[in-house]
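Here is one chain, start to finish.
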Amino acid sequence: MERTIQKKLPVGGGSWVTVDVYGEPGAPGLVVVPGALSDAHAWRHVATALDAWPSVAVVNRRGRAPSGPLTDAYSLRTEVEDLGVVLDGFADTEALLGWSYGGLIALLAADVRPLRHVVAYEPVMRPFAAHVLPDLKAAEEAGDWDVTVETVHRRIAGADAAHVDALRADPQAWETMRRLSRPAHAELAALNAALPPDGTARRAGRVDLIVGELNRGKAPYGTTFEDVRRRTPGAGVHVLPGQGHMAHAEAPAELARLLNGLAVAAR
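Its structure:
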C-alpha cells in the first residue's frame, strides 16, 4: 500500500506528533511506534509491504521532524501519553506494533488502556545502556552528532569500527542518523529513569513479542528482551530468522510477512 496522508496531532506542552498513514485513511488498521534513531520514514518499506490491515499508521514520535520538540518535561510517561493521543485519533486501531524503545511504549500503553493486539519487536527496558549516558550527554552539549551515532552503534549495539566506517561511507545515510540521534541522550535517560514495571500489556487481548535470531539470548537486545518477556505473561514469543535489531531496515519484507501472519492468527 502507498502513503496517502500525513496527520498532525497536538500532544500538549507546545509539542505535536505527525503520523504517516498508508492505505485507506479512517479504516481499521495497525499503528506503528518506532524507537530511537528511527522515524516514520524509516518504516516505509515495512508499511508498504503489509497487507493484513487496510491501513497502517506510522507515528513520528516527538523529537524528530516534522514532529515537535521533546520539551523540558519529557519522560517515558510523556511517550505513553503521546501514544494515547494517537490511539484516540485512530479509534478503530486493530493492532499496535512497537520497535525497541517504541516496543516498551506500546506495551505500557496497553497496560493503561484496552487494546486488541500488541506486537513488540525487541522492546528494551531499564537497565539499558546506562553506561553511555555521560558520553551521550557530553556529545549533545557539544552538538557532536557524529560521536552520538558512533556511541550508539559501537557501545550500545556492539558494532565494530569497520561497520561504523561502512555507515560513514554513505553520506546521506550518515546524515540521516546524525539528525535522528539528537534525542538519543534524552530518550535513553528517560528509559533508565523509569522504574521497571511490574507487568506490561495487561489490558491487551493478545500480545506477541518478536526477537531477532541473531540477538536471542545475547546482550544487550536479547537480554533486555527476556526482562520484558518475564513481565508480560501469556505473550507469544516469535523468532525472526537471520535478523538482528534492524530488521525493519535490513529485511522489511520478512518482517512484514511475520506481522501479516500474526494478524491472521489474532483474528
